[in-house]
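Why does this matter for the project? Reviewers at the last site visit asked to see concrete outputs rather than summary tables. In response, this paragraph embeds two records directly. Each consists of the residue sequence and, immediately after it, the corresponding structure tokens. Nothing has been edited or filtered.
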Amino acid sequence: MNRLSVEQFKAAEKLPLVVVLDNIRSLHNIGSVFRTADAFLLERIVLCGITACPPHPEMHKTALGAEFTVDWSYVNSTLEAVNNLRNEGYTVFSIEQAERSTMLDKLQLEPGKRYAIVMGNEVKGVQQEVIDASDGCIEIPQYGTKHSLNVSVTAGIVIWDISNKLRATS
């Protein structure tokens, strides 16, 4: 199935995309994001606030070992994590329904740039101070009666789309 070993994964060139998890409560959601980050060879995940860190048996149920392949770090403050990423040259987008947000299908990325996306708490979303410190917001167009998606589903959609766009420009 052309699966990479852990060693091959660690050595592989990564997509220049970092996922920041802003106070994610559910261990299953965290594990799902690790698994998606592994599937798309992302650079790393930054866990913030109340977001749990590996290893954890409940997280492992959805991560299925991706918590051991994907690089991760913990920063207490999401705002600090965003500021650190911006200082490192990343363009940071909060994934949130907000005024002047860019619809995901309209998002244009620049070749050679590095990006980070902030995924917010399951109930409260991305903190306003984090949105204010971001370079912009990305929103997934939705057409039904519900206007929210599970955070791990949202991460999967956004990561897939950004992955396609970054791979097309490289």
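We now turn to the second protein, recorded in exactly the same manner.
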Amino acid sequence: MTTEGGAAPKLAEDVLTEAQTRMGKAIDALKRELSSVRTGRATPSLIENLAVEYYGTPTPLSQLATITAPEARSLTVQPWDKQAFKEIEKSIQKSDLGLNPSNDGSLIRIPIPPLSQERRREMVKMLKQKAENGKLAVRNIRRDAIEQLRSMEKSKDLSQDENRRAQDTLQKYTDQHIANIDQVSSTKETEIMQV
């Protein structure tokens, strides 16, 4: 049992702070993942994380070229190394984005075709799966934190009341982050379904 009055709540506070930080990172990761989900508009984030086989090493496209969106329906890729042209084109074609690049020797142009209604529905389904995975990550973080709090209570570092209060706070954090995921997902779904 702790003798200092502030030590036990401080331990619980550390667990809650760590859980909240990890939940925030899970949402950031989800946002990065969703930025690569195709909407009707051209955006460099659509392809910047595509893995390109560069001298035997999978490398993100953003580390090999400058990616721009000169128009709403096209992207251009300016590779820094002329040897990477073929591999960049191959990676773009292999991706599940349905893009067909053309190479003029100094620039790769990628027209962004409009999405069919069926393809939009597929994209929304994929989006919902990614959002569900994000929620699962947040719930797993909550579970880990609850286990830490329970073990602290068992070892008498935390009273039962302090544990209950900490778990209530943890649940509020979890609910906030799940609501944030729903909001991010809903915004992206609206973008996808816009014609």
